[in-house]
Predict the structure.
Amino acid sequence: MSKNTFTMPLGPVHVALEEPVYFRLEVEGETIRSVNLTSGHVHRGMEAMAQQRNLIKNVTLTERVCSLCSNSHSFTYCMAVENALGMSIPPRARYLRVLAEEIKRVASHLFNTAIQAHIIGFKSLFMHVMEVREMIQDVKETVYGNRMNLASNSLGGVKCDVDPKLLEYIRAQIDKMEPQIEEIRDIYRTNLNVVTRTKGIGLLPREDAIRLGVVGPVARGSGVMNDVRKESPYAAYPELEFNAIVKDGCCVHTRTQVRLDEIFESFKLIRQCCERMPEGPIACAMNPIPVTQATARSEAPRGEVFYYIRTNGTETPERLKWRVPSYMNWESLGVMMRDCAVADVALITNSIDPCVSCTER
């Protein structure tokens, strides 16, 4: 080992990290040579709790797995239960689920890009992105009554309808947001401060992305087409037109561009849901609970969420297990950080949009 090589601990509590995670960095001078990551600091035992609650109460529990992806968890859980019970939800409920999901996706992607500006030290850009994000937060609060956990999904459909007046309000809000986010996207694409700190940093070659099985914008930023909404359409997605954003730059800058471009695809989906919303009921009755097992998956803002449920004929599941996108994306940090500067650790970590809490649950 060279005289200039040493082991550097980072975390689990550190000013540059949003949530607790421990990095053991092998550093040569200012350059990282290898990374060892240890998680497990915020374990909550949620899968065990799910086996002590009935199927309906677990809708509330799963929505608290993660804040930014909260709707995706209850959405996917409900689909898993509905698959197990052989339920088919009404068309209006399918559109309302997609509407809520895409609203959450816009808020999540804006938050991640804002945090990137914060880490770079571009404080005015951070504040600007968060200010624009408040417009979609207002949509969530006005339509659903909550700014984070929408509490929209229920077994068999959704809890609350969205009337034409609210649909018009949603359209008006995204019409206001779109030109402002276009301006933000141009800043992230061309501003020298941003480009210098992100382009060519945190490289994840396509072959490594495939080998590690990464998902979501991390995969699509490395040229891997991996979008559950396209590959295994669910809810109303088969009836809606949108593009899966795939780029091959493989760096922090490219992953940011994927998220910003996806916001405009979410706007397309939101508009289509508002315009094509079918009439009819928003939920159906639950079927009897058999002894069976089922799965469901969806495309959360961070990537694929996968749920497995096993029932035993009672209201309480025998087993409920889920796999979150951050779990699949963690290992890619070892590739991304290799031969990068220590100063880039927080920036590269943010580029996978990690959620420690939902990874450990």
Remarks:
- The chain has a mean pLDDT of 93.
- The beta strands are 5-10, 22-28, 31-38, 153-154, 157-158, 291-300, 303-312, 319-323.
